[in-house]
Amino acid sequence: MTAVDARRARREGRGATGREPATRLPAPRGPVTATLFDRLTRPPDDSPIPLDVTGAELGDDDFQLALFACYELHYQGFDDVDERWEWAPPLLAARMELERRFEETLAAAVPRPPLDGPVEVRRALRELTADDDGPSLSAFLSRRAGLEQFREFVIHRSIYHLKEADPHTWAIPRLRGRPKAALVEIQADEYGGGRAERMHSELFRATMRGLGLDDSYGAHLGRVPGITLAISNAMSLFGLHRRLRGALIGHLAALEMTSSLPNRRYAIGLRRLGGDDTAALFYDEHVQADAVHEQIACHDLCENFAAEHPWLAGDVLYGAACALRLERLWAEYVLGRWDAGLTSLRHP
Asked: Cα(46)–Cα(243) distance, rounded to whole angstroms?
């Protein structure tokens, strides 16, 4: 690597070898993560990992970070965690307890939407995604946000967007026929049609660099609150359990069906703050792609899946409702902090 390449790599958050910087466990946020991280930084053994999450709330920092760390071992992992932990029985048992509590908090926060029958899934999804009277974070970012607020927004979103599409891809081997083909069509676009530079995660990295942010994977994990982590944890929960495959595709449909207008607003806001076309390309891409994906996700994926698996039709709507509710809670949190003149991140 030349000196010029090394300087560019440093600006882009990579080491002198061109590899990603080490992704390490963040600092613990309480007794649950303190116990969990202490074990994960040592070699796996067979002794139990006692985690008490009794009474943990949906947005609890300690609880959500612990669950996120367990799930991350199925994605890129952490450099300071032995990869054998991924399937170590004590960790799976501990994760089961975290997931049990997470499912309880989701059920308390998200009532299951009514459904007349599997043939009504498309109509029900459209009604569910149209019925959104929550605060409009996208409108604020379009018209009023300052540069530091937009940077905070992007940091929150980096937790998911740097692995964009990966949680929903877990559904592919669990589907068949037309629903499977529909999901593959959507995911192929998310992964840039086989071109690395067009992958949505890579387009988002360009947005981060345009805002002067570290674009390396996991760089901002220690800065985001529990409600941000809950958004990603719901995707992983649905994705890693075959019994929740209906909720997973409903979750994806809700994202696709509510994405085009907000992304148009994000692009407007970023350009208003001086962002160039390269930085805004991620949002521009989603305005067009998600308008197409909306139809595929609603009809070809969810409606056909519900027709083939009528006993899971309610799960499709529940997954969509979870996506919408978590987004609303997160937007309320962020806007509430900004209205109070405070940062929405854990550390300035």
From this structure: 27
Range of the domain at 132: 118-339
Count of domains for the chain? 2
For the stretch 68-124, pLDDT in tens is: 999 999 999 999 999 999 999 999 999 999 999 999 999 999 999 998 877 789 999
On whether both 254 and 303 belong to a single domain, the answer is: yes
Give the phi and the psi of residue 38 in degrees, each rounded to 5: -60, -40
The closest alpha carbon to 158, from 106, 214, 116, belongs to 214
End position of a domain, from candidates 109, 141, 165: 109
Asked if residues 117 and 309 have their Cβ atoms less than 8 Å apart, the reply is no
The identity of residue 216, as a single letter, is S
Distance CA 155, CA 1 (A): 29
Q: CA–CA separation, 20 vs 158, rounded Å? A: 15
**Tokens linked to 286:** 């989603």
Q: What is the DSSP string of 192-243?
A: GGG-GGGSHHHHHHHHHHHTT---STTTTGGGS-HHHHHHHHHHHHHHT-GG
Question: What is the DSSP-derived secondary structure letter of residue 34?
Answer: H
Residue 87 and residue 148 share a domain? no
Taking the whole predicted model, whether its pTM rises above 0.85 is answered as: yes
Q: Is-contact 64 118, C-beta < 8 A?
A: no
211-235 residues labelled b (16+ CB within 10 A) or e (exposed)? bebbbbbbbbbebbbbbbbbbbbbb
Query: Residues 69, 42: one domain?
Result: yes
